[in-house]
Amino acid sequence: MTRVSWDRYFMNIAHEAKRRSTCDRKYVGAVIVRDRMILSTGYNGSIRGLPHCDEIGHMMEGGHCVATIHAEANAILQAARNGVRIDGATIYTTASPCWNCFKLCANAGIVRIVYDEFYRDERSFRVARQLGLAILSLEEAEREAMREAKQGAPRTKRAATKRPLSGSARRTRGSA
Ligand SMILES: [Zn+2]
Ligand SMILES: [Zn+2]
């Protein structure tokens, strides 16, 4: 048996979360991790307590189903509900984030986004570069981790130093 990398391990768990999705227009799962510990998980689903798309159909608007809360947003919300700090964390998502989820990730203090399948949005990639927020495919993340393992540098600190010197970046660096 080949031992999976940390990045693939967390992505596999995101794929497991995806299996709980209830909108068949796009099944997505997400896992938020810091220091190799899972802080929260999420998947694409309706507002808590309301029927799901696979029961009552979609709520279509501009070619997208707007009934659901996306996996990344739900993972951030789960952390909020439980009072878990996600500043400086990595989010693993089975599909690259839409613009709205990207914005949530950025302001939640997530410093690294790892996605499996490219979905959208090009704009997120451009803005991520501007912010110094790492957004990587799973393969890129694995390659980066391998390089860092060779150099012997802890990856959370390195991810945090990519951010501009905002207050939250300094906090992250201090506590990583
Ligand atoms: Zn739907
Ligand atoms: Zn989204």
Walkthrough of the structure:
With 176 residues, the protein is an alpha/beta fold. 44% of the residues lie in helices and 19% in strands. It contains 8 helices and 7 strands; from the N terminus they run H-E-E-H-E-E-H-E-H-E-H-E-H-H-H. A 5-stranded mixed sheet has the order 2-1-5-6-7, with helices on both faces. Strands 3-4 form a two-stranded antiparallel sheet. The longest helix is centred in the C-terminal third of the chain and has 14 residues, at 138-151. It is globular. Residues 160-176 have low confidence and may be disordered. One zinc ion binds at residues 70, 72, 97-98, 100-101. One zinc ion is lined by residues 70, 72, 97-98, 100-101.
In short:
This protein is α/β, with parallel strands linked by helices and 176 residues long. Helix content is 44%, strand content 19%.
Features of the shown structure:
176 residues, 7 strands, 5-stranded mixed β-sheet, alpha/beta, 8 helices, 44% helix, two-stranded antiparallel sheet, binds zinc ion
Strand content: 15-25%
Number of strands: 7
Strands side by side in the biggest sheet: 2-1-5-6-7
Name the poorly predicted regions: 160-176
End-to-end distance: 32 Å
Name the overall outline. Answer: globular
What is bound: which ligands? zinc ion
Number of helices: 8
Approximate helicity band: 40-55%
Q: How would you summarize the topology of this molecule?
A:
Elements: H1 6-18, E1 29-34, E2 37-43, H2 53-56, E3 60-61, E4 64-65, H3 71-82, E5 90-95, H4 99-107, E6 112-117, H5 122-131, E7 134-137, H6 138-151, H7 155-161, H8 167-175
Parallel strand pairs: 5-6, 6-7
Antiparallel strand pairs: 1-2, 1-5, 3-4
Helix pairs in contact: 1-6
Bound molecules: zinc ion (2 copies).
